[in-house]
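Lecture notes, part 5. Sequence design as translation. It can be helpful to think of inverse folding as translation between two languages: the language of shapes and the language of residues. The source text, in structure tokens, appears below.
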């Protein structure tokens, strides 16, 4: 089902959703370049500091499961605004946390905000854009969040390296506050899905008992896992192995962001014309090759950054295509599906960072790339065998209208 509104209004709605997505990824990735500073300032080992990512993801993963039916019932806007508001408060608390335990608690609260925000954003994209053009629409959302990698996170890393990691969080909190106000004022109310929303958690059971849907979500979980096997420790790897200064670590995130930006736009457009599943399979395979190469055959930091860029380009293509398919798995329960998918991705962060920590302890930095590659190939095989894109062949879809009085 799609909501019928004029194209100009749809484009403005997409821009607002991009704003929300920017904030989410900024919060996701900001820990990577400032992890060494937090480790030094609070007196914890890097591997322990990596638990900040784990706390953020566990809370987000659990909360996302509960948010799905709620998103379907009350509509997307209330959940987007509430999620952004929680994210703002959590980020402000991170800036003033006096010790590691309270910093971890504030990051857990941020995970709660993201659990509401992320699935509501992607469900809204599915509401307003037909499947045949959704790959391109998803690529715009992903382009917005990679802008956080290209511009926001490096700036935050620079501020952290030259001044304080606390100031980085404070500035991010201020930016999130502005975004919250913008979304509250400008994002239109959509039509609540009362029928599916009234199912409550039966909707979760209904979604998960479909084999193709549950395994698509599992493959997406694996795709997030292999990212965070390495990305969680990317800054520490380049700092310890190549002597890259702490203030320059944000450049790694910038290179990765540029790759995702290019890959999502190219992959999203190809997937709309050639099919989304082939893009997912090929890009996943390339991810495995490039991430394994980062820690095994990179003789110099420049070569390592080049492999990261190629890995991120392939990953961006996969993400845009996978989000488009996922949003069509059960249109009447789109909020629930996207919430379960977001939950899987949050637990993918937990799994990936945990696998990375164990690999780092046993094999050192060299083992991170190959460990990520194994998970990437498992994701590819799962999608190849279990997800059938032919179920989404074009067919006439009913259009829903915005609630009376809703406007941008």
């Amino acid at each position: 089902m799609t909501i019928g509104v004029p194209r100009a209004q749809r484009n403005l709605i997409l821009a607002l959703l991009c704003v929300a997505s920017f904030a989410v990824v900024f919060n996701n990735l900001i820990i990577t370049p400032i992890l060494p500073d937090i480790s030094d300032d609070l007196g914890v080992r890097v591997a322990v500091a990596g638990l900040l990512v784990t706390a953020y993801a566990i809370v987000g993963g659990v909360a996302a499961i509960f948010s799905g039916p709620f998103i379907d019932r009350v509509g997307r806007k209330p959940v987007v605004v509430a999620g952004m508001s929680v994210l703002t408060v959590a980020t402000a608390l991170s800036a003033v946390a006096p010790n590691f335990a309270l910093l971890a608690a504030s990051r857990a609260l941020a995970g709660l905000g993201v659990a509401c925000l992320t699935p509501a954003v992607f469900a809204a994209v599915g509401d307003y854009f037909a499947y045949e053009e959704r790959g391109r629409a998803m690529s715009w959302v992903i382009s917005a969040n990679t802008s956080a990698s290209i511009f926001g996170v490096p700036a935050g890393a620079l501020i952290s390296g030259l001044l304080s990691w606390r100031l980085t969080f404070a500035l991010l909190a201020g930016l999130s506050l502005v975004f919250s106000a913008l979304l509250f004022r400008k994002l239109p109310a959509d039509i609540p899905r009362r029928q599916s929303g009234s199912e409550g958690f039966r909707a979760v059971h209904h979604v998960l008992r479909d084999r193709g849907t549950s395994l698509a979500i599992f493959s997406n979980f694996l795709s997030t896992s292999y990212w965070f096997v390495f990305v969680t420790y990317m800054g520490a790897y380049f700092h310890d192995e190549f002597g890259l200064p702490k203030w320059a670590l944000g450049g790694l995130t910038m290179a990765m962001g540029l790759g995702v930006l290019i890959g999502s736009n190219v992959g999203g457009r190809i997937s709309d014309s050639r099919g989304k599943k082939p893009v997912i399979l090929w890009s996943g395979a390339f991810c495995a090759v490039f991430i394994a190469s980062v820690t095994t055959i990179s003789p110099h930091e420049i070569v390592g950054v080049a492999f990261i860029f190629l890995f991120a380009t392939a990953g961006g293509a996969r993400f845009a295509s996978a989000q488009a398919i996922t949003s069509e798995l059960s249109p009447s329960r789109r909020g629930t599906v996207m919430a379960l998918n977001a939950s899987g991705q949050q637990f993918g962060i937990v799994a990936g960072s945990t696998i990375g920590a164990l690999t780092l302890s046993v094999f050192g930095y060299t083992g991170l790339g190959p460990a990520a590659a194994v998970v990437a190939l498992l994701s590819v095989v799962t999608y190849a065998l279990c997800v059938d894109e032919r179920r989404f062949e074009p067919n006439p879809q009913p259009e829903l209208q915005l609630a009376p009085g809703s406007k941008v």
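The translated text above is only one of many valid answers, since several sequences can fold into similar shapes. The first strand starts at residue 2 and ends at 3.
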